[in-house]
Amino acid sequence: MKTVRKGETVMTTRDLMREPLKDFTAYVAGGKQFKFDSGMPVIKLNANENQMGPGPKAMMAMSAELGQGNLYPMETILNLKRKISKHVGFPLECITTFSGSGSGIQAIGEAFLNPDDEMLVCSPTYMAYYILPKRFGAKLVEVEAEDGVSTDLDKIYEAINDKTKLIFICNPNNPTGTLLDPDKLFDFIKKLPEHVITVVDEAYIDWIADDSYPSALKMVEDGRNLIILRTFSKIYGLAGCRVGYAVANAEVTQCLGSIAGFMGPNRIGAAGAAAALEDYEYYNAAKENNTSQRTYLTEEMEKLGITVVPSSASFIYFAPHCDTKECMDYLESRGVFIRYFSEEYIRVSIGLPWQNKQFLNVLTDYLRQYRKIAV
Ligand SMILES: Cc1ncc(COP(=O)(O)O)c(C=O)c1O
User: Rounded to 10 degrees, what is the CA torsion of 33, 37, 39, 45?
Assistant: First the structure.
């Protein structure tokens, strides 16, 4: 560890970091660093990636864009924003693009969180929210989910006070896959005080089986501090290309825009995302695979005596009623990577049929040995 001198004091380089960040460790998608060193084929169901790969239209557009990699991406991003604008039905001045919605989350914190502000979440929810307030010296306030899994809007509302600056709501929620009653969500948004900025993270909205389920986009309007976050990492299969966006009224968008300049997508990702938005065949195939495999996995896991939280997303949160850490380690030793959450729950991302089958086979082997179940 390098030591540095400041006058008489000897310190480490880490001591030079901003105060709230000194004990930070890196965020790793999927929960832990992924090791491929066993030489075994790996089934990666730990980070909610789309196992179909990028769609053909996105791949063609990205290949075509490579030759312009020497040029800054402004006009490619503008083209993407135009496509997003058409897709969501809001003008360009309501859209901010990011290098993944993860950067959008950072940008929101940077734009709005002062030290001593409070940020509210309903736990368990997406890991990246938890590190945000700490980054800015703000305070995280957690309320508990109903039955440990469903976002509790009443509890969130009760926890609002004069210091509350941000509320993050993930719908469908990661990691539990639960979906809010849209009327309840919209009523909640309507009654929020003006000093609060609410973020509805719709990273998984496209996986909801019911196509008539309304997005919270319809609540975006002038004078309302509401931000809807979306990503190309999930149904559009572009997690590695890093493209996400926010939709908000023009005033909120200007606030985000004033700090988001260096957080935008690159030219290749932006070109891929623009093409992906118009690849309906790929989108429908991804949705169809996810919906049918979600039903299949849910039914098969329930046959194994597992408690499965009904999911509206591209993953399943489940309680196998055994040592979850040991269970996860066993799966990993057999090349199947899933995500640990607690002594009770783990999460598996929905993959391709053969991957899901293999996950079930290995899980069944483990439960047979551990719980001596007759399957
Ligand atoms: C709820 C939620 N929001 C945002 C993200 C970030 O996605 P990305 O930065 O890839 O757009 C994720 C990633 O898994 C997520 O689960």
Answer: -10
